[in-house]
Automatic annotation (TrEMBL):
It is a multi-pass membrane protein. This is DoxX family protein. Keywords: Membrane, Transmembrane, Transmembrane helix. It holds the Pfam family DoxX.
Length: 149
């Protein structure tokens, strides 16, 4: 498919790179000192404690709450890795699936706050679109290495 400026495959690569920049911005805007001290997990614990779905409260209390520092690093560096991986197109299908999963986790945790959900829904939609359009076949390290063809 040819469009006015770029081919269809190139537009999907632009979409993938834009999603990577979005993840990179999620990493960049965090107050790292507070975040790595457990601030982000403490904030999320307050939301989980009042969640309308008991399974979310129980899961958060069992997996995340006992490990606030580890989870803070895991979340922040996952966002950084997703951003860089999508921008350069490295392990792109893995990054797209992992990013969609992380967005769905954020979506479920914040289900009561629909004002915040637009971002998670849009990022999940872009991940699914980029995955189904095999967006790593254009302008990516994966393509250069002959991976995921």
């Amino acid at each position: 498919m040819q469009t006015i400026w770029l081919s269809g495959a190139e537009w999907f690569a632009v979409l993938r790179i834009g999603l990577g920049l979005w993840w990179l911005e999620s990493w960049r805007h965090k107050d790292k000192k507070s975040w790595f001290a457990g601030g982000g997990i403490t904030w999320a614990a307050g939301i989980a404690a009042e969640h309308r779905w008991p399974v979310v409260r129980r899961t958060f209390d069992r997996i995340v709450k006992p490990r606030p520092r580890l989870m803070s690093y895991l979340v922040a560096y996952a966002e950084l890795a997703l951003g860089l991986g999508l921008i350069i197109g490295f392990l792109t299908p893995v990054a797209l699936v992992a990013g969609a999963a992380l967005n769905l986790i954020y979506l479920v945790l914040m289900i009561h706050d629909w004002a915040e959900q637009g971002q998670n829904l849009m990022m999940t939609l872009i991940s699914a679109t980029a995955l189904l359009a095999v967006s790593w076949q254009t302008w990516s390290l994966d393509s250069g290495l002959g991976w995921f063809l």
